[in-house]
Write a structure and sequence with these properties.
alpha+beta; OB fold (Dihydrolipoamide Acetyltransferase, E2P); 4 domains; 5-stranded mixed barrel; 4-stranded mixed β-sheet; 13 helices; 34% helix; 20% strand
Length: 451
Amino acid sequence: MVKIISRKFLGTQSVYDIGVERDHNFLLVNGLVASNCFNKSHSTAYAYVTYQTAFLKANYKVEYMTALLTASSDSQEKVQKYIATCSSLSIEILQPDINRSDIDFTPVGESILFGLSAIRNLGEAAIECILKARETGGEFKSLADFCDRVDLRTVNRRAIESLINSGAFDRFLPNRNQLIADLDLVISWAQDRAKDRESGQLSIFGNSGTQNGSQNTSTEAWESAPKADPVSDYSHEEKLQKEKELLGFYVSDHPLKSAQQLVKVLSPINLNELAEQSKRAIISAMVMLNEVKIHVTKTTGERMAFVQMEDMTSKVEGIVFAKTYKRLESLLQKDAHLIIWGKIEEREEKTQIIIEDAEPIETVQMVIVDLADLKPQQINTSELSRLESILKERSGDKNYAKVPVLATISTPYQNQFVRFNSKYWVQDATATVSALKAAGFSARAKAIAGG
């Protein structure tokens, strides 16, 4: 690598930003590279764009993230990453709404509303038909009103079912299973009305008809639409699963959201942070298994597993080798919610986690040592040393010491939790509590997911 040491003025001439594969530098005849030939106007333009995007993100975060989500709507991986960014910026992602959603993601106050184009099974023609009916006749009043005003040849049953299960009709009735049960009856009713309109019968008998999608009398015809017998709603898990199938993401909630206490105590990393972690370092993550594939090794005939995992920020593949698989086999089930420990590894330009241990989220425990009754002067060095000594004895093999230890201490205003460094974490919560009590400490074990 050499630098240009002299220049010669050639007057005003056209210049070009010449790029070389991988580097924006000029190659000299002797094979050396001139390192300071990068076009300064090019770098200035990049710097200005960086400044603009940073300014927008800092001052117009909702509008900025809306634009990113819309521009990346064809990439689930990017959208999931941006949704995680929205969460960190305290921007709520709202589920689709049949009366508010537009084609693309839309900023609504401090939130972002899902667009209709993000719903599977809903084509461009169907969206245009829905928006036209809404623009012409105003907001929809119910599922029946919707079916009565849109062209059911364009917005078919599958599309309406997708709208229901994505939450777009929740404003009318949050019981999505009931809406699905009503759907066939309502569609048949709306089709009959469409035929009557075409033949002019609704106008002849003075019933509430529609003209160009708008109501032409004061009577609300949709109120007389047939309904199915009452049915109970889907379970919370079923609702979320259907949402994910149709939107590609969990929007109204996330299966791992209820376990956020784990994040505070264990400090697992988010899956979108894998690239920032040291390779081969032991990390922990709170995940849900989307897919489990069993593989039989050719050499030993033992079983191992490849798992697809996700958290609230991203997705990643995990590998469970034969020795570990024997121990974790019962836990490796589709939809299982786990806290996993493992090493990050790059294979074929793909980041993976070599899973070395796992535990169901609901069974993860912590040890709490109650020091709140002690005055600050009573928590002396010898007392802490005695406590640390007991914890070290219970740590055992550091690879398996995964039970965090917290202490409650008294402050002038309230009791607070203090988390011990991970080197004081232990293997067995129950045995550790017994040892601490025997030594005169007040201690208890508690499930983390329980709050």
